[in-house]
Amino acid sequence: MSDWPEGWYRDEPGRASFRAEGRTDEAPPTVASGQAPPTVTNMDGSARPGRPSAWPEQPPVTTPERAVPGTGRPGLGGRRWRFWGQPGRRGRRIALIAALVVVVLIVATAGSYFWLDSKLNRSVTLPAFAGQSAGQNWLITGSDTRRGLSRRQIDALHVGFNFGTTNSDSIMLLHMGGGRPVLISIPRDSYVPIPGHGTNKINAALGFGGPELLIQTVESVTGLHIDHYMGIGFGGLVSVVNEVGGVRICLPTALHDSYSGLNLSAGCHNLNGTQALGFVRDRHSFADSDLQRMQDQRAFLRALLAKATGPGVYLNPFTALPFGSSAAGAISVDKGTHLYDLVQAAFALRNPQTATVPIADPAYITPNAGEAVLWNHTQAVALFSALKNGQTVPPNLLTGTKVG
CA 118 to CA 342: how far, in whole Å? Predict the structure, then answer.
């Protein structure tokens, strides 16, 4: 059906007479006196004078309204329906959604932070310290505890059944000052005075009085104030490494150690938790035994923290949260440590300067503790004095780290 009136195509009155007379110059119809001449609208919207027409007045040309999809309601007339609506409203809606996203991220981040902070095992009390030292110092230990491990796990990890031991195969001192962080390994068999227990291997301090006595011992022989403590056991290390997806270590030669259960070929490996524990415990593969193991421990710790603080972990909540939860539950810290302290230490461990306490005799025969490690007193004093006073450590005392 058409909206045009019937007969619109027929000649208008008056035109037939022109044709009957053989005229081809159709004169424009006249305009009645007192009437304004009609106007014609151009395509650009402007108006121009026109001539009267005998055609009937037509309705204005419009585009049918389109309904809003799925609602049956009229839309925006001839314009295409847009989800965002008018330009001004669109900008406000985008800003509102962006603000909501930011709020959600802030709330989620804050919630995750306080949740992880609440999971920290704050079980260590720092002893009183009368002196002062520059920067911030962490004492980091790897405990021999088998607590929480089943008999099957103990067999699989090759850690033996000495449930009563509280010794440590790894003792490290992390110093954070104005410059590049410094990570110092302290040999577990260092022959030093232990407050209240005479002179013995420093490792024995854990057995005599737990982390508190070990902290006191380190403070007394280094002159450095220990601001924070961090300790992790066998099972905790395995769990943390597995949660982060393994740690990449490159070996110059193959390692085969029946004591730790380690069997790795030369080349690069992504160590899982069990392999990582074997790697940091292996000392039988090297001629210099513990001295090389300490370097491997530093290399592993640096590789672990470099991955844990990389964007592949902290930008992925499905990795970051399980890793953070596992790490928070696996480590023991002092009562004044919070999550932001651990984050600072983690970033410091990504690429520190490294060394081992200077040694005068790695096989010193003691009167009461068998074979032990005797420090080079002069060089050790120079090393720890530089850290205590916030000075640059002499380069000859920074022996570096090389994987065995």
Answer: 13
